[in-house]
Amino acid sequence: MDTKNTLRVHSIETFGTLDGPGIRFVVFLQGCPLKCLYCHNRDTWDTNLGNVTEVNDLVSEIKRYIPYMKSSGGGVTVSGGEPLLQAKIVTSLFKELHKLNIHTCIDTAGSLPINDDITNLLKVTDLVLLDIKHIDDEKSKVLTGLSNKNNLDFAKFLSDNNIPVWIRQVILPRIYK
Length: 177
What we know:
The chain is of the alpha/beta class. Helices cover 32% and strands 23% of the residues. The protein contains 6 helices and 7 strands, in the order βββααβαβαβααβ. Strands 3-1-2-4-5-6-7 form a 7-stranded mixed beta sheet. The longest helix is centred in the middle third of the chain and has 13 residues, at 87-99. The radius of gyration is 16 Å and the shape is globular. The mean pLDDT is 93.
């Protein structure tokens, strides 16, 4: 397997309307460091699972949906799991999509420390959907299994670098007391 050109894909949604503007081709990647109590994608947690998919094959599939994306102001959203775990290859995917003038978006919790791979990904990302799990660090640890430090550092990095972001948060009254 050429890890420079392959993604571990959990699933694909070809007509997403909730994960960014317009009609979206949504790629759910495999792997997540969080273990959120309310997670609806628990089958994406394991980093060793998923369909190994070549970037070129994925771009070929995405091209079939360009008319829908263009007519609605949509594009491609990479979600998860946690897309930052595969930041380097998502960067390659987004570079190919930009050649086709396709809007790019990542849906992330920002739960990993910012590194060069993540910084490079953000340079080719048109929009970040940032899921802040909990603002209180101790409650975040209970809810997700991890501190929210990286999440909040990621939000600050986006703000400091004027990177477009939509903040999202799941509100579940029985969990958020």
